[in-house]
Amino acid sequence: KLADTPVIYPGCSGSYEEIRACNKENFIAYVKSEFNHNVSKEAGLKKGDYKIQVTMHVNKAGRVFASRVVAPNNNLEKEMFRVVNSTPKVTAATHGGQPVVSSLQFLVDFKVEQTQ
Question: Is this structure's pTM higher than 0.85?
Answer without folding.
Answer: yes
